[in-house]
């Protein structure tokens, strides 16, 4: 049974939902633009995967699927495309011949880092006038929401 909420609380929850929708739409646009900046044939999900691979370093496809809460088949298709585009190399895991270790190519790392620097600069400019306490509280609230 869900708790009884005041009309003000219900309205606030609805506004949070609406603002998250706006934020997610902007994030999807950033992924789409980032994908195109890396390679015109790269899809946004491929950009998300590649950016995660650059951040994490070499890893198994299964680990990426788990980290991104994505089906392994999606990862496989994207890895195949990214290999064809020269963005990722895949090598057998020396400890488990069935598994593959993925590594972003130097070109992909460079492009992702340029895009990431640009995105972080944009975020910093939007948060410049926030106090340290505001930023800490915001990060804490986001972490609570993601739990």
CATH architecture: Orthogonal Bundle
Strand portion:
5-15%
Within CATH, the superfamily carries the name: Winged helix-like DNA-binding domain superfamily/Winged helix DNA-binding domain
Based on Cα principal axes, name the global outline: globular
Helix/strand-derived category reads mainly alpha
Q: What is the tally of helical segments?
A: 6
Percent helix:
55-70%
When the domains are counted, the total is: 1
Model regions low in confidence, pLDDT < 50 over at least 5 residues: none
CATH names the topology as: Arc Repressor Mutant, subunit A
Q: What is the terminal-to-terminal distance?
A: 21 Å
Report the biggest beta sheet as strand number plus sense, adding barrel if it closes: 3 strands, antiparallel
CATH class: Mainly Alpha
Describe this structure in words.
With 147 residues, the protein is mostly helical. It has one domain: Arc Repressor Mutant, subunit A. It has six helices and three strands; from the N terminus they run ααβααββαα. It is globular and about 55 Å long. 16% of the residues are buried.
């Amino acid at each position: 049974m869900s708790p009884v909420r005041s009309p003000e609380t219900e309205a606030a929850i609805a506004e949070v939902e609406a603002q998250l929708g706006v934020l997610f739409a902007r994030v999807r646009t950033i992924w789409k633009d980032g994908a195109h900046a890396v390679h015109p044939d790269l899809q946004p999900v491929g950009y998300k995967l590649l950016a995660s691979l650059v951040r994490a370093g070499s890893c198994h496809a299964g680990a990426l699927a788990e980290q991104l809460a994505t089906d392994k088949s999606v990862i496989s298709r994207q890895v195949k495309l990214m290999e064809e585009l020269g963005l990722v190399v895949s090598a057998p895991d020396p400890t488990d011949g069935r598994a593959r270790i993925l590594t972003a190519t130097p070109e992909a790392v460079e492009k992702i880092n340029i895009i990431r620097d640009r995105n972080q600069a944009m975020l910093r400019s939007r948060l410049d006038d926030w106090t340290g306490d505001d930023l800490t509280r915001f990060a804490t609230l986001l972490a609570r929401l993601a739990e």
